[in-house]
Amino acid sequence: MDVLKDLLRIKIFREEKAELAVARARHHLVEMDRALDDARRALEDHLRACETKEKAMYKELCSRLVLVKDIDEVTLDVKLMQEASAELEKKIEKAKEARAQAAEAVEVSRQVHRDAVRMREKFMELVRTVDEERAAELLRMEDLEMEEAAGSRYAGAQVQSDDFAFDE
User: Fold this and answer.
1) Which domain holds residue 157?
2) What is the CATH number of the domain that holds 18?
3) If DSSP codes are grouped into helix, strand and coil, which group holds residue 132?
4) CA dihedral 43, 82, 73, 59 (to 10 degrees)
5) CA–CA dist 14, 112 (Å, integer)
6) How many Å from the N-terminal Cα to the C-terminal Cα in the chain?
7) How many structural domains are present in the chain?
8) CB atoms near residue 143 (< 10 Å)
């Protein structure tokens, strides 16, 4: 019986460990959500800043007489801003992938936890059943001992009454 209780303790430990894994996975998912939001915000801020800067550069070009070199510099600056935007979009995609992996990890850890809970419940039921059977067996053994003791007294009393009958 002690083996079953030891196994039950192991099942409880595994359930608690799985519960901690779910909490860690949820925390990681929250961090990935934050990282995704930060990446999106960074792109939005960058796009706004680029739009403002681009308008200012073109306005400045239109306000004066320019050389081809000036137009090339503005064009290069616009391309650099577009490349920076593309890098920020890549960061968003990576953040989305990391978030999806974190969400999958949460689901996996939840399933492991559900399995651990199910196993603990099975072992608790098994321990309860074995305890009930043991209690019933002890009760049955006590009843048998009581019957045996009562039978012994009855047999002893019968022998004494037989002795009295012979004495007469």
Assistant:
1) 2-167
2) 1.10.287.1700
3) helix
4) -60
5) 10
6) 58
7) 1
8) 10
